[in-house]
Amino acid sequence: MSALTNITLKAALDGLKSKAFTSEELTRAHVEAIEKANPHLNAYVLPTFERAVEMAKASDAKLAKGEGGDLEGAPLGIKDLFCTEGVRTTACSNILGEFTPTYESTVTANLWRDGAVMLGKLNMDEFAMGSSNETSRFGPVVNPWKAKGSNAALTPGGSSGGSASAVAADLCLGATASDTGGSIRQPAAFTGTVGIKPTYGRASRWGIVAFASSLDQAGPIAKSVEDAAILLKSMCGHDAKDSTSLDVPTPDWPSFVGKSVKGLRIGVPKEYRVDGMPEEIEALWRQGIAWLKDAGCEIVDISLPHTKYALPTYYIVAPAEASSNLARYDGVRYGKRAEGKNLIELYENTRAEGFGNEVKRRVLIGTYVLSAGYYDAYYVKALKVRRRIAQDFDQAWTKVDAILTPSTPSGAFALGDKSADPVAMYLNDIFTVTANLAGLPGISVPAGLGADGLPLGLQLIGKPLDESTIFSLAGALEQAAAFKAKPEKWW
Amino acid sequence: MAIDAATVRKVAHLARVAEPEDRLEALAQELNGILAWIEQLNEVDVQGVEPMTTAVEATQPLREDEVTAGGDPAKVLANAPKSADGFFVVPKVVE
User: Fold this and answer.
1) What is the Cα–Cα distance from A235 to A109, expressed in whole angstroms?
2) How far apart (Å, rounded) are the C-alpha atoms in residues A297 and A290?
3) Do A126 and A92 touch, CB atoms closer than 8 A?
4) What's residue B1's pLDDT?
5) SS3 A238
6) Mean pLDDT confidence for A54-66
7) Which candidate in A87, A91, A488, B18 could, as Cys together with A209 as Cys, close a disulfide (CB 3.0–4.6 Å)?
8) B37 contacts on A by Cβ (under 8 Å)
């Protein structure tokens, strides 16, 4: 039934509405595809097929009566960071054990409200800390793409590696993901999919396992720009349960895809030309500039002078917030417990056994930069540089409507390649992390293939709350790039 | 501000993560590698810059001071590794 899995979400929604197929048929086709592919790709850590078929049948009943929401009957995958009521949620960490939430995250509740069907929970880096999906307790996710003439297993990126791999391999029509430093956009770029992180505060963080609360945002990974717009519209909206949720209306984003971008001013920041960047990334960027120029945009050279300080800033702010957020894993209230002869030992042993090495590293860094004597030198300093980075963007918005950059400094790399060197791994997020620090929307659009046949992405960064413009621009890039490549099925 | 094994021991204890003695030296090196890379922030002039604590400037919303959730201890305890009689169970903390 590959015909039912290799279509876009939009095509599936149209097919459901016109009764070309039922949600049950669509869902079962995806179940079949997952059963075949998952032993090889490891994208799903917990399939929920029975629930999926039940939800599909309920959707079919609604569709038969001509009812149903914007996503009625569409099977999706859910990153294991989102709490799902009655369905084990672990953030792919051992410390959460068999934690089964008694509540539903707001973002997933919004998707179910609109009729979506849950296929299962998707793999990710432990607590979303990673850029290669190698820190998961369930083992790495494999990218469905392979380099030309090589059989090496590649990373789909991270932390939303399961989401990206599942969407690229047609194991769902779209997936939820989350982005703290690039965890939606980098995996999207590595797998030839579209990923958007909205403005901070658009998507409620309630019920999403917290990593770094001032940076975390949910968003979709999807097969097309239009699909991403449909999914994001359903996910977003004000939520009183998240005090940072913005009380602003959610625009009809799908209607902005395909709109003319004539006259829009596009900033090209010179600081994103980093040392050692492969020529093919530069070439792709030039191509993107040419495409937008052809579409009627005005290209403006801009400067974001504090760009090079974004990653070091992030690696103070994010671990500091993480060390505080992860203090809740104490072996007492939920998740895994390791015994100890007193309460302190119980905590220390539980956390030593439950956290993986990268998570421990960040908890220790975070604890250190927040500790007495170092708080001002590291943490407060980083918060000040963070404002400088945000001010760079404020300056840019006086001259341009959006910014175009590469999504990542390279294409997908082999599993194991960078896992020994934390800083080399962190550099993956060099182009994406600025949008998190400044709270801005950013989208990655597949724009071409590198010499090794692997997908590469371009990123558009927008003004606060101006996802509409970047959806229009992303649509123009998608149309010009005409990216139709799919990974060859080897599973 | 190089970190040594003793600092790692102290920080690990603050973070409530048991780290075996034979890991401390290696961890110190790893953390020093990351901190050395972070040191470049010292190049930035932040004179007079206010620390940025939130990505979007918004006033904190207030709501009526009333109970909106709770009253379901079974749900609260549902995932506890150990519980009894409506309580979480931990090792004895008072002699």
Assistant:
1) 9
2) 9
3) yes
4) 56
5) coil
6) 98
7) A91
8) 312, 315, 423
Residue type, B49: V
Q: Do A351 and B16 touch (CB under 8 A)?
A: yes
Confidence band, pLDDT 50/70/90 cuts, at residue A87? very high
CB A141 within 8 A of CB A165: yes
- Nearest partner of A473 among A375, A370, A402, A372, judged by Cα: A402
Q: Is B14 on the interface with A (CB under 8 A)?
A: yes
pLDDT band at B58 (very low <50, low <70, confident <90, very high): confident
Look up A159 and say whether it is catalytic: yes
Domain residue ranges of chain A, discontinuous segments joined by +: 2-258
Contact A341 B91 (CB under 8 A): yes
pLDDT tens by residue, A119-174? 999 999 999 999 999 999 999 999 999 999 999 999 999 999 999 999 999 999 99
Provide the shortest C-alpha distance from residue B12 to chain A (in Å): 6
The verdict on A375 touching B (C-beta cutoff 8 Å) is no
Binary contact (A364, B79; C-beta < 8 A): no
A14 CA to centre of own chain = 26
Cβ pair B13:A348 closer than 8 A: yes
Q: Which amino acid is at A74?
A: A
CB A193 within 8 A of CB A144: no
Please state the ipTM of this predicted complex.
Answer: 0.95
Distance CA A181, CA B6 (A): 31
**Interchain contact, A351 vs B50, CB within 8 Å:** no
User: CB count, 10 Å around CB of A67?
Assistant: 11
What pLDDT was estimated at residue A2? 62
Mutation target vs B (from A385, A388, A389, A392; most B CBs, 10 A cutoff): A385
Which residue out of A59, A178, A183, A204 is catalytically annotated?
Answer: A183
- The number of residues in chain B equals 95
Residue that is written with structure tokens 């007193």 in the block = A342
Domains of chain B, by residue range, sit at 5-42
For residue range A372-417, list pLDDT tens digits in order: 999 999 999 999 999 999 999 999 999 999 999 999 999 999 999 9
A224 touches chain B (CB under 8 A): no
Split at pLDDT 50, 70, 90, the class of A1 is very low
3-state helix/strand/coil string of A266-301: EEEEHHHCCCCCCHHHHHHHHHHHHHHHHCCCEEEE
Mean pLDDT of A292-317: 97
Q: Is B1 within 8 Å of A332 when comparing Cβ atoms?
A: no
Q: Which of A318, A301, A340 is nearest to A127 (CA)?
A: A318
**Residue A243 catalytic?**
no
Q: Which residues pair with A173 in a beta bridge?
A: none
